Amino acid sequence: MRIRSLGVIDDAVVELSPGFTAVTGETGAGKTMVVTSLGLLLGGRADPALVRIGAKNAVVEGRISVPPGGSAVLRAEEAGAELDDGTLLISRTVSAEGRSRAHLGGRSVPVGVLAELADELVAVHGQTDQQGLLKQSRQRQALDRYAGDAVTGPLTKYAEAYRRLRAVAVELDEITTRARERAQEADMLRYGLDEIAGVEPRAGEDVELAAEAERLGHAEALASAATVAHAALAGNPEDPEGIDAATLVAGAQRALEAVRSHDSALASLTDRIGEIGILLGDVAGELAGYADDLDADPLRLAAVEERRAALNALTRKYGQDIAAVLAYAEQGASRLTELDGDDERIDELTAERDALRAELGGLAQALTDARTEAAERFAAAVTAELASLAMPHARVSFEIRQTEDPEGVEVGGRAVSYGPSGVDEVELLLAPHPGAPPRPIAKGASGGELSRVMLAVEVVFAGTDPVPTYLFDEVDAGVGGKAAVEIGRRLAKLAKTAQVVVVTHLPQVAAFADRQLLVEKTNDGSVTRSGVKVLEGEDRVRELSRMLAGQEDSETARAHAEELLATARADG
Hints:
By secondary structure, the chain is an alpha+beta fold. It folds into 3 domains: 1-133 and 468-559, Rossmann fold (3-Layer(aba) Sandwich), CATH 3.40.50; 134-152 and 362-465, no CATH class; 197-336, no CATH class. The protein is 57% helix and 16% strand. It has 20 helices and 17 strands. Strand 10 and strand 11 form a beta hairpin. Helix 2 runs antiparallel to helix 3. It is elongated. It starts with a strand and ends with a helix.
């Protein structure tokens, strides 16, 4: 990794061993920035406060080897990333204003893509995780994670049934608690539907009646106009001397008929005048019929206006036109059917709720059985690890219990409370020595014991997690002496099958590392490129001496440091 302008680090390069790498340095030197940098590369939250004061942004770049053909490679390729000889280039930029950018294999990608890769590539364990594991909910999650498919399968089915039960319960509660409101809504709908049914509107009736009312209201003017127009076209019998359009057109046609044979163009015009005469005759006939049929009927006009008033009363209440009124009636009838079916729906929902509760009870029992079996294996594995961490007489166990609740689900003949993850309350217990009663680890372990228990838990997880890299951030806090040596020995053993990175203040742990990196500040308080260096030979002895006694040149500390290195090499 290359880290620039992140926290106290100005510009530094971190090269990790494929085996066990220990990162050491004085307090405040920036050791945890290694963890922070890796977290940023793997999609962690970008905090603008991490940007070094005076810099515009912080940049972390990394080169990660990925297993060929694995899901991480497939996900990276889906995002458009390109691999370089089996390695993946990742970069993350965080601006002082809080903006964040991510690049994967030369392509800009959403930060979420990096987070997806993190699950496949690196497992990060730190003091925050230790504190989290003191919570019972996290302990249950840890047990479920260890159990794997034995819990995942029934838990998925349980979660689906639980979500459906919650939805059914909400709907049932809504129907029963809002009965008065729903009854009022039903009454209003019935009134409206009865009013609409009483009028019996037809689709488009309002448009038709508006046109008829317009015609009836102007019947006399329309008849008069039609009569005058008819006389202009066909003549008035009471005025034989009058000139009409039909007579004039007929005269024009007769004048042209006598000479049409002499010119084809004139013959064509003659034919067109003849067509005009025919059309005039047709229009004149229709005007005569229109005038005869048009009846100024006051009674019909009154009936039309009365009908329109009834329709307008509906459109004022239920829609802008009759089409909208009819749509309201259709929807209202459907809603009324739904409201009137409340009793039936309540029965259906109650039956479904009871069936789901019974189903949840069966799935919860399967979860309890799977957790109980996994808890025995998990506790035995952690206890065995503790024996390797200088706690040979400690015993770890799980307590899996349920709380009785008359409103809960029935499991094993008892009604117990339930939640989205089942009915089990899971608690990790520790008996640190023979004769000591098992107690919750938050109460029954000292700081050093707690660190070792948590490290043992993480090591057990490491045996089940398929990720190739494990990062431990000062999980050895509160541990010293022989226990610290055993922790270093155990991490070195883990590093034989995976890459292990440990940020530590313990020389006993650092001595077992294949590579030790020293983070040190310059005089101006920053960490430069040369400020993260690989320690070898005399330099490593001097750093281990400082970690042991606070003095690099102490002969006693040097002897102890060399002894630690010799012990580690002998174990390796």
